[in-house]
Amino acid sequence: MLLDLLNEETIKICSEAKDWKEAGKIAGQPLIDTDKIEGKYVDAMIESVEKYGPYIVIAPGIALFHGRPEDGVKSMCMSLAVFKEGVIFNVDDKDPVKLVFVLGASDNESHLKVLSEAMILLQDNDVIDRIISSDKVDEIVEIIKNKLMFDKES
Question: Which residue ranges does the record assign to the PTS EIIA type-2 domain (predicted)?
Answer without folding.
Answer: 4-147
